[in-house]
Design goal:
Radius of gyration: 14 Å
CATH topology: Outer Surface Protein A, domain 3
Strand order of the largest sheet: 2-1-8-7-6
Order of helices and strands: EEEEEEEEHEHHE
Distance between the termini: 31 Å
């Protein structure tokens, strides 16, 4: 297992600066635009309207609809890779726990935070 000091460095490009997206400290279940809760039983997939590429091991995405650019760190990129096909959130968490030295609670919190941010920025689609 690789210990990366556990992450939370997902970033969103805004004109003039790179800033973090989603730095919530409390564990939350996110509610998306359709009023659905995002939890470990939710299913997620990439938004087909997002162009993505990998640069130096990190995902860089552009939402074609909004014209905004986004970037993810190494672990965020791994989550993005796992969403190549529709996948349950709990499977993402299980896979990350196999690959990284992180507690279940911390992993769950961070994954839900990142997925909430990705959904809020229209980069993924969530279903129950």
């Amino acid at each position: 297992m690789m210990d990366v000091g556990w992450w939370r460095r997902a970033i969103c490009w805004l004109p003039g600066a790179w800033t973090r997206i989603g730095s919530l400290k409390n564990e939350k279940i996110f509610i998306n635009k359709q009023g659905q809760m995002i939890d470990i039983n939710s299913t997620v997939k990439r938004n087909e309207e997002v162009f993505a590429s990998e640069v130096d091991g990190e995902a860089v995405m552009m939402n074609i609809q909004t014209g905004k650019y986004y970037g993810l760190d190494e672990i965020g990129t791994r989550i993005w890779e796992l969403m190549k096909e529709e996948i349950e959130v709990k499977k993402i968490i299980n896979e990350l726990r196999k690959e990284f030295d992180v507690s279940e609670q911390q992993c769950k919190k961070d994954v839900l935070t990142l997925l909430g941010d990705l959904e809020k920025n229209q980069l993924i689609e969530v279903s129950e």
